[in-house]
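Recap for those who missed Tuesday's class. We walked through two folding examples back to back. For each one, the amino acid string is listed first and its predicted structure tokens come directly after. Nothing is annotated here on purpose, so try labeling regions yourself before you check the end of the notes.
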Amino acid sequence: MKEIRKSSKLANVCYDIRGPVLDEAQRLIDEGQRILKLNVGNTAPFGLNAPDEIITDVIRNLSAADGYSESKGIYSARKAVMQYYQQKRVANVDVEDIFLGNGVSELISMATHAIIEPGDEVLIPSPDYPLWTASVTLAGGTPVHYICDEQQDWFPDVADIRSKITKKTKAIVIINPNNPTGAVYSDDVLKDLLELARQHNLIVLADEIYDKVLYDGTQHTPLASMSEDLLTLTFNGLSKAYRLPGFRSGWLMVSGPKYRAKDLLSGLNMLASMRLCANMPGQIAIQTALGGYQTINDLVLPTGRLGRQRKIAYDMIQDTPGLSTTLPKGAMYMFVKVDTKKFGIKNDEQMILDLLRQEKILLVHGRAFNWPEVDHFRMVYLPDPETLTTALTRMQNFFATYKQA
């Protein structure tokens, strides 16, 4: 019998956050072993639950959620998103410029398919959230990775970006606050990036899902508030700041000179209609989330749970010989640097597998984020302080004797 193979469109698509290492973790779980998953920003398993008010409102409105909504999403939720960005000084945004989706992931896929022609190049940060690279590739485009500089708080290297722009460059992806590094870009950096977009007529794709997960008084500026003259697609949702990843509730906002993008917008409308609509319970949650008390503000304080866990993770990583990290200003991750000479690292994925098998801790190797070297891994600091301290102590024990075979 002839083997049935996957489509050739998937040949260069990678998403190693849920790849071979996770498969090995599942094998160990099936054997009855307990694995501490520090690989994804899934808040619920660690008791970081959504605000009760949001859950209550969704429950009370479930009886109205058993049918389709209009393809862009329910009016009240889109109106709430519009008003949120008006408060952020984003100009000339209407309800019709808002698309609701089954999480930001679906909307990224929709947007890349609407924008990209075969051969178009899209600038994507390295390290990146790998869904961007995968989606651009699947849409027929070519991801071109620009370097973010660890020595400069992981800010994008503007000179590197400039050197990689060609006649085929169509768009630039800016992830701010950044996953996996936790960097939050200054207004000066954002202005430099937008100036490059102006000079080369690039579409701006702004991934801002962590815009409320900020520490030490750090301020986040929405790109759309600085790019009135540039077509800007902003992506955000309820997964992180509101601890609702399972609701798959996200939005895409289009801003800037929309009159130049009528055909593109018709394409987005078509794709939104093809999937009928986003899930209704997730849509119901948006208005309450954006309008209610923002509980994330308490969690990110130095005395708040995320604030305390960030400090524990940073201090213990810095105290581990051979490991170092930059203190994140946002999000819920650390992108940890490994001394490859000290540990003899030739394969970062093997390092993560060895840690998993020995200490039953699941992380993600750096190359999964399209980082070119084998000298980093990403970890989340979501477990409660006691559990996190125990996990990091086990990690310290591992690296105290580790040498890659």
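Example two. Treat it independently of the first, because the proteins are unrelated.
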Amino acid sequence: MTKLLSLLALALLLSGCNGSTLDKTISLTAKKEQFVSTIPIKGELRAAKATPISAPAGIFEPQTIAWLAEENTLIKKGDVVARFDTTKYIHQSEQAQLTIDQVEVSYVTKEKTLNNEKEEIATTMKLITDELILVERFSPEGIEAFSKNEIIDSARNMQYLKARKKHTDWRNKAHEKKSISELSLLDLERQKHTSKLAKYHNAIDKTEVKAPHDGLFVLQKDRHGMKPRVGGSVWPGRKIGSLPEMHELLAKIYILESEAAGLTIGQAVSFSLDAYPEEVIQGALTQIDAIAKAAERESPIKYFGATVAITSNSQNYWHSGLQLRGRVFVTKKDNVISVPSQAIFHDKEIPYVYLNDGRKWSKRKVVTGPNNHAVTEIIAGIDEGDVIALHEPKRW
């Protein structure tokens, strides 16, 4: 009897190992439930409206920040929020003023020299004119009354004086042109440095930026995510901060370029503020940037920027600049079949799963829908109640 039982047990063991061996595959039963596909986000609160605070325009080069008001502090109208370094412009204005003073001295000196030359020419012209009058008055009227030498000397003297008068007249005209030219050059030199001096004074006058009205001062990040800082340089007209209107806030969010597929305007957003993680805030996408940009200089990682309109009730302790983290709901469906993404395999890009028909595992082609990295929707190929493998079946 014992021997017979042993033989029967051995037969059962051999039959179990023949064809369909012991299967230890981990599986699950498909069922219909809610499917949610989300994208992680990060960002910060911002005011929907804000008065920009910019570096002074009308200056010809970048400015160095010497002082900045502390961020997120209440500012009164007329308060200084930024001050720029004036050392360079004070030195340049002093140099320009010194050059102007030197040109002024040169102008006065040149003017006196030219006036002296003009007086000398005028004196010479008067002397020549007087001599001509005398020569013409006392010139020989009768050839018989004078010797031949006297007549020749008188004629030569007349010609000489007329030539001198003509030359002196030429000198006078040349001197006028010379005076205008030399004084004009000095005047242009003076105007050039006066213009420079005005630019330097203008730069000095604009080194203080004042608040146009009361508000909470917030610094402005550049395209690399960097905020203005003392010692840094900014170009004229560049926005360095703002005075936001705190009664209306929105969320400025950033989404990895690699995860941004499927984003559209109107999708629901849920996030929490880092400072108040227990609060869940709801919103909706209202704007998405067309081009992804790097968050840091020379970084290969790019993000799409987007704007979220907040639908939750605003709290009085929220303010611009608070950091946030959350998710965008790309897809949200009820009563659909979804399976872990690891349970889907591919053969020449055709997706399939391993289906258990009660006796063995077999491949079943499926049509997949959206996924959230962890779970993928199955549009067709399996039904509720089907048993599928979570990994490729193995036999022991």
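Answers for example two:
The helical segments are 2-17, 87-137, 148-205.
The two ends are 32 Å apart (CA to CA).
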